[in-house]
């Protein structure tokens, strides 16, 4: 649970809590909808009275358990999905893919909304780019932000972090926050079969048939 708390639950909380002021009735739109962080964003947002649109790849199944808690599920090819967005205050967009997927996500955000990038699943490295229209920046007054979890941890005192972690774990114990099913693989380089287990895990992650399957977290063991 400690691995999940640091690697997923806290980042999801910071994305909902810190990136902009959210009010009940607001909407978040996010891509990589089957990811662990995205699933937790949905639950934490619901605790705030905020609804979530999760965007998944076209090869994904919209009936996957990983996205069933989202209020709306869209495939990437459906963006910007004007009819679906009609009447919704989509004030926050969370992007962990970048590139074309990020540009399409930005087009779904309401005037004066906030676009946040916190990853680059599409690859490309530091030289990768995305295209934003003049309408988004000038007429829609979109705010662009980046997210690094370590910076949000540093903004809080040790006492505040301990209180936050205690509260989040209480939510888990009370069933108000459920973590997705995950596989934890102990990282023991000297163990027999370690390399084979890592290769098998990476092969499953790259297998297109495994989309939406349980995620694997590596836990370093001394």
The average pLDDT value, as a whole number, equals 88
Q: Which radius of gyration do the C-alpha atoms yield?
A: 18 Å
Largest β-sheet summary: 6 strands, parallel
Structure class: alpha/beta
State the total count of DSSP E strands. Answer: 8
The low-confidence runs, each spanning 5 or more residues with pLDDT under 50, are none
Shape estimate: globular
Q: What is the terminal-to-terminal distance?
A: 18 Å
Helix and strand sequence: HEHEEHEHEHEHHEHE
Bin the helical content. Answer: 25-40%
Q: Helical element count?
A: 8
The spatial strand order of the largest sheet comes to 3-2-1-4-5-6
Tell me the fraction of residues in β-strands, as a range: 15-25%
Question: Can you describe what's shown?
Answer:
By secondary structure, the chain is an alpha/beta fold. 37% of the residues lie in helices and 18% in strands. It contains eight helices and eight strands. The chain has helices spanning 2-18, 36-47, 82-85, 99-106, 134-139, 149-154, 158-173, 194-206; strands at residues 27-30, 51-56, 72-75, 90-95, 114-117, 143-146, 182-187, 215-220. The strands form two sheets. It has a six-stranded parallel β-sheet, sandwiched between helices. It has a two-stranded parallel sheet with strand order 7-8. Helix 1 packs across helix 2. It is globular. The chain starts with a helix and ends with a strand. The model has no long low-confidence stretch (mean pLDDT 88).
Task: Summarize the model shown.
With 222 residues, the chain is α/β, with parallel strands linked by helices. It is 37% helix and 18% strand.
């Amino acid at each position: 649970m400690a691995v999940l708390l640091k690697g997923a639950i806290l980042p999801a909380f910071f994305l909902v809590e810190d990136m902009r002021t959210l009010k009940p009735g607001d909407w978040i739109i996010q891509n990589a909808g089957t990811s662990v962080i995205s699933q937790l964003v949905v639950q934490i947002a619901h605790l705030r009275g905020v609804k979530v649109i999760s965007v998944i790849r076209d090869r994904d199944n919209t009936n996957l358990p990983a996205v069933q808690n989202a209020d709306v599920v869209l495939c990437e090819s459906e963006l910007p999905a004007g009819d679906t967005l009609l009447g919704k205050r989509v004030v926050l967009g969370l992007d962990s893919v970048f590139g074309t997927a990020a540009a399409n996500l930005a087009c779904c955000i309401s005037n004066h909304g906030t676009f946040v990038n916190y990853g680059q699943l599409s690859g490309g490295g530091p030289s990768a780019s995305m295209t934003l229209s003049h309408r988004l920046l000038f007429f829609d007054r979109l705010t662009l932000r980046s997210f690094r979890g370590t910076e949000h941890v540093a903004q809080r005192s040790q006492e505040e972090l301990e209180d936050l972690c205690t509260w989040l774990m209480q939510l888990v114990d009370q069933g108000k926050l459920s973590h997705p099913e995950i596989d934890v693989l102990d990282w023991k380089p000297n163990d027999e079969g370690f390399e084979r287990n890592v290769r098998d895990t990476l092969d499953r992650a790259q297998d297109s048939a495994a989309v939406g399957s349980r995620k694997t977290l590596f836990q370093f063991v001394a």
